[in-house]
Design goal:
single chain, 2 helices, mainly alpha
């Protein structure tokens, strides 16, 4: 979650300073952080579910 929050700050920085390359990197890293967060949450849920044998 921190990774996603930080990207919002980078996005704001890019807009204020007009450094447009930071927008692309913030979107790319934000997408990666969101993907990993979803993956980690799914793995955590799978560990909590009882296994059927």
């Amino acid at each position: 979650m921190i990774g996603l929050a930080v990207q919002v700050l980078w996005l704001a920085y890019a807009l204020v300073t007009e450094q447009w390359g930071f927008i692309l990197s913030a979107v790319a890293y934000g997408a990666m952080a969101a993907h990993n967060l979803r993956k980690w949450r799914a793995e955590a849920r799978a560990e909590l579910e009882p296994r059927a044998n």
